[in-house]
Design a protein that fits this description.
about 450 residues; about 15% strand; eight-stranded antiparallel β-sheet; 2 domains; two-stranded antiparallel ribbon
């Protein structure tokens, strides 16, 4: 399985590649421009040799057959120092990874939905302490499972609020978290042939797993938040995100599906998993369906439905690092981003985890901001990452992190579901930090 980097065309492309010192730096179609202004590694306190070592680490995942392909990007001080496309997006058709290859980003959707919805808070169209019942009455009326019972319920002791949705303390889980006798089907909550409004009616038939505000729990909070945004903005979530974030931030390849022409070219990477012999096999048809992906649809999952590219997501992450502004365009106030990136959960509300409490040690010990993982400032060396880190990951092995102290944004994307998904995340994070010189 080979890796491949793709050169830009034209004089500007040659200058970008030379300036970055990365022979294979590839451009972003169709304009061929880098997602952020480029810089030499040394000018932003990073090591050229360290970035070469990072590339070698990522390439080993491809060359060893652990991943079909990877696209990653790194920036410091708002300047791009690495953008690499390695391996293939489609092994069967031998289509190479490109810098603008699209990926199902699953849970990386959450931070995007939250950022856009916080804009409604700034506009006064939504309040963090508003009851959710103001926007989705049936969700506001959900009862709560009594502690230790699988059938007995009680009323909410305090109303579920919008803040609870942002902090994932609303009492909502994912389908496997409810008692088996309730037979909760994910497709009923997130129906591909339906809408978020349809899903909310189904979700409201269930009891909450815990009282609002009592416990942090991974689950449908991002989807309920997406529906709140639809009601408060008066727009379907896809249009709302496009107008509020994607257009102003220049995220040209992010949405709930790839356009028909891109889909026909196979620009959405396939999802792979290890087969019985350990070799990668195509599991795209079995990947969790949170969007239609290759054709227009009606379900807009605010917790996991988006597709994006590494350069697009790098721009979004840079906006967060720069406290709400990118290329002179402000989309959020600095104080809003500060609140989003500040830990909002307490130790009493439980540990932050990714999909299952025993999964993904990459975030073990993290807290939760407003829909984003936050490494506590007082965390010890046993907690992954470094002080100042925020970020999250997606089900099919995509990840991003921001380090507000080191002034770094970094994104890596593959399409893989398997037992060692965290290995890529750890190697990428460690490799980026190892390239720091100051």
């Amino acid at each position: 399985m080979s890796r491949r980097t793709l050169p830009l065309g034209g004089a500007r492309a040659a200058w970008v590649a030379t300036a970055l010192g990365i022979a294979g730096l590839a451009g972003i179609a169709p304009a061929g421009a880098a997602p952020l202004a480029p810089a030499t590694p040394e000018s932003v306190g990073m090591s050229r040799a360290g970035l070469a070592a990072l590339k070698s680490r990522m390439a080993r995942f491809v060359d060893s057959g652990q991943r079909a392909g990877i696209v990653y990007a790194v920036a410091r001080d708002g300047r791009l120092v690495a953008l690499e496309a390695l391996g293939q997006r489609d092994l069967e058709r031998r289509l190479p990874m490109e810098p603008d290859t699209a990926f199902r980003i699953y849970s990386q959707t959450r931070a995007i939905t939250a950022s856009a919805t916080l804009g409604l808070v700034e506009q006064g169209k939504l309040g963090l302490d508003d009851p959710v019942a103001k926007y989705i009455p049936e969700i506001g009326r959900m009862r709560v499972l009594q502690a230790g019972s699988t059938t007995q319920t009680e009323p909410q002791r305090q109303p579920m609020t919008v803040r609870h949705l942002f902090t994932y303390t609303a009492g909502l889980g994912y389908a496997p978290d409810w008692p088996p006798q309730l037979d909760v089907q994910p497709s009923a909550i997130l129906p591909l042939d339906g809408t978020l409004a349809d899903g909310m009616r189904q979700l409201a038939r269930l009891p909450l797993l815990t009282q609002p505000g009592e416990k942090w729990r991974y689950g449908f909070s991002g989807d309920v938040l997406g529906r709140v945004a639809e009601v408060a903005s008066g727009q379907p979530l896809d249009q709302f995100l496009q107008r509020r974030l994607f257009t102003p931030l220049g995220m040209r390849h992010t949405g709930f599906w790839v356009p028909a022409a891109r889909a026909a070219r196979g620009d959405l990477a396939k999802v792979y998993t290890p087969g019985q012999d350990g070799r990668l096999v195509d599991m795209t048809g079995r990947a969790t369906p949170l969007s239609t992906y290759t054709r227009p649809g009606t379900l807009f999952s605010g917790g996991g439905g988006l597709v994006s590219t590494a350069p697009d997501y790098l721009r979004f992450a840079q906006m967060l690092l720069d406290r709400g502004v990118l290329d002179g365009v402000r989309v959020l106030k600095p104080a809003t981003v500060d609140a989003m990136l500040t830990r909002q959960t307490t130790a009493a509300q439980g540990d932050v985890y990714w999909y299952a409490p025993d999964a993904f040690p990459t975030v073990r010990g993290f807290g939760w901001g407003l829909s984003i993982g936050v490494r506590p400032d007082d965390a010890g060396p046993e907690v992954p990452g470094r002080p100042g880190e925020r970020g999250w990951a997606g089900l099919a092995n995509t990840l991003f992190f921001i380090n507000v102290r080191e002034r770094i944004v970094a994104v890596a994307m593959s399409q893989y579901v398997g037992p060692d998904a965290g290995a890529l995340n750890d190697a990428f994070r460690d490799g980026v930090y190892a390239a720091l010189e100051r």
